């Protein structure tokens, strides 16, 4: 996940630089051809980020609820496969956003979402909302189990060597849980929940957050990656 966060931060810099350079407090008119050329990292990494968060939650669910299966899994291979799948799904969104792009001026709008048609924007919002709900539910299972385990104290062993070995394993397991929970929490509060609310608002009311607040998803992804 750190790799994708760094890649996104680097690849989105041309768009951020272009928007800042051409920013005006009274009137904004970005060139749609430039936005089309430099805006592709957003749909790619947004969907990839959601998929990787779901993968992190799945990994912890296996460790917490199905430890026998967890120990049999090749985690490196699974991580590589998950990365490929997430980037492939993100690439599909890039192709669809390119096909749905409207090469016409959008006054006072600073987001890629303003330049795509309503069909893609509806698909994008609905798919992100569905993925967000899945990640939230999976995260709740992780948080509940971690909280339950933290309240329980198990038998550490009969001998000193057994106790030291079991305590070391317990500390490693606890640290892994804390790390994953931290990643999921930052993703939930910085990206998943805000994205879910944005999708709900636009689906129910038709009010476009993109036109009102600008590059919302870019800010969410960067903030989530920072934490």
TrEMBL record:
<feature type="transmembrane region" description="Helical">
    <location>
        <begin position="122"/>
        <end position="144"/>
    </location>
</feature>
<feature type="transmembrane region" description="Helical">
    <location>
        <begin position="81"/>
        <end position="102"/>
    </location>
</feature>
<keyword id="KW-0812">Transmembrane</keyword>
<dbReference type="Pfam" id="PF10316">
    <property type="entry name" value="7TM_GPCR_Srbc"/>
</dbReference>
<feature type="transmembrane region" description="Helical">
    <location>
        <begin position="181"/>
        <end position="201"/>
    </location>
</feature>
<dbReference type="InterPro" id="IPR019420">
    <property type="entry name" value="7TM_GPCR_serpentine_rcpt_Srbc"/>
</dbReference>
<dbReference type="InterPro" id="IPR052322">
    <property type="entry name" value="Mito_rRNA_Mtase_NSUN4"/>
</dbReference>
<keyword id="KW-0472">Membrane</keyword>
<protein>
    <recommendedName>
        <fullName>G-protein coupled receptors family 1 profile domain-containing protein</fullName>
    </recommendedName>
</protein>
<keyword id="KW-1133">Transmembrane helix</keyword>
């Amino acid at each position: 996940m750190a790799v994708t966060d760094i890649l996104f931060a680097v690849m989105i810099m041309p768009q951020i630089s272009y928007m800042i350079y051409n920013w005006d407090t009274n009137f904004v008119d970005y060139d749609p051809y430039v936005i089309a050329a430099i805006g592709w990292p957003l749909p790619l990494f947004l969907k990839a980020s959601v998929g990787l968060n779901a993968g992190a939650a799945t990994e912890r669910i296996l460790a917490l609820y199905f430890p026998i299966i967890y120990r049999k899994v090749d985690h490196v291979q699974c991580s590589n496969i998950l990365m490929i799948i997430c980037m492939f799904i993100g690439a599909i969104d890039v192709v669809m956003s390119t096909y749905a792009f409207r090469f016409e001026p959008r006054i006072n709008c600073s987001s890629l979402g303003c330049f795509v048609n309503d069909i893609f924007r509806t698909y994008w919002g609905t798919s992100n909302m569905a993925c967000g709900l899945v990640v939230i539910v999976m995260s709740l299972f992780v948080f509940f189990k971690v909280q339950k385990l933290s309240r329980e104290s198990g038998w550490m062993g009969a001998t000193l060597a057994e106790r030291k070995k079991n305590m070391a394993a317990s500390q490693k397991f606890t640290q892994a849980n804390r790390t994953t929970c931290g990643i999921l929490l930052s993703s939930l509060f910085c990206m998943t929940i805000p994205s879910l609310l944005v999708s709900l608002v636009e689906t129910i009311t038709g009010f476009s957050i993109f036109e009102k607040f600008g590059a919302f998803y870019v800010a969410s992804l960067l903030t989530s990656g920072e934490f």
